[in-house]
Design brief:
The protein is mostly helical. Helices cover 85% and strands 0% of the residues. The termini are far apart.
Length: 136
């Protein structure tokens, strides 16, 4: 190896090590700040949802129903976070919320328009339970 090639290799190794150190600091920061962590992952989820809706718009396979499904998934996720933050919420309510969210995610695009009113009603009931809970 020539002197010039050795210098380039050494510089690249130094840059690689500095990059690893900065990546380690970034990882540590994200692990210690949950809000930053959730914003990163939710950004990818929203991007995927928009791509999915766009695909259904192009194929004309009911993109409005899919968007409504994603909106209610977000509503249920917010209800779960509200329930977790309140100490007076019955753990059974939290389990029911999680099960309902999983059922909503598994819903077929063909059936979502028929089933969405039931999910809307349940979301309203869960919200009332969470907002009106009292510590026993």
């Amino acid at each position: 190896m020539e002197k010039r090639e050795k210098r380039i290799l050494r510089n690249n190794i130094i840059k690689f090590l500095i990059g690893l150190i900065l990546l380690g600091f970034s990882y540590g920061y994200v692990q210690n700040h949950p809000a930053e962590k959730s914003s990163i992952f939710s950004g990818f989820e929203v991007l995927w949802q928009r791509i999915d809706v766009l695909y259904h718009q192009i194929t004309k396979t009911n993109p409005e129903a899919l968007q409504n499904q994603y909106n209610y998934e977000q509503t249920y996720q917010e209800l779960i976070k509200m329930a977790e933050s309140k100490t007076c919420v019955d753990p059974g309510v939290l389990v029911d919320l999680n099960e309902t969210l999983l059922a909503l995610k598994k819903e077929s695009i063909k059936n979502i328009n028929n089933d969405l009113p039931g999910y809307q009603r349940k979301a309203q009931e869960f919200q009332n339970m969470i907002e009106n809970c009292t510590k026993k």
